Amino acid sequence: MMTRFGWMAKHTLFVKNRKRRRFMIWKFGEMVVDFARTIPRDSVTDRIISQLVGAGTSVGANYIEADDSVSKKEFLKCIGTCKKEARETKYFLRMAVRAVPKLKPEARKLWMEAKELHLIFAKIWRSGKQQEPAK
Questions:
Q1: How confident is the model over 29-76, as pLDDT tens digits?
Q2: Where are the domains of the chain?
Q3: CB atoms within 10 A of CB 48
Q4: CA atoms lying within 13 Å on the CB side of residue 98
Q5: CA atoms of 59 and 65, how far apart (whole Å)
Q6: Is residue 72 within 8 Å of residue 132, measured between CB atoms?
Q7: 52-64 CB burial, b ≥16 within 10 A, e <16
Q8: Which fold has domain 19-127?
């Protein structure tokens, strides 16, 4: 199954192209917000919605911070946070489906996007860590 941005994530130039990566992350945040609006609200889902939107939009906010970083150490810290937030988004998508099973098809698409972002950030983070001089 090809996700909305799947072709980009598997293309080598995409991983190196900051503009495309920025666009993908921006669209992901929008998709999370749009999905959260479809979740019926009750005492259980209110907390899930809040956490999901927080994590899903934080990916982009932290990427912007990484893009504007002034040092490699700061960049890697922000990319590490992006990686964690993408993983957290996957978790809250699962919880949303647990609370409202009919949302599974749309949540699955978003989960795959979050997974791709997580893998991209993990690759960037690992590459940056490998290039650091030994202490």
A1: 999 999 999 999 999 999 999 999 999 999 999 999 998 889 999 999
A2: 19-127
A3: 21
A4: 9
A5: 10
A6: yes
A7: bbbbbbbbbbbbe
A8: de novo design (two linked rop proteins) (1.20.1440)
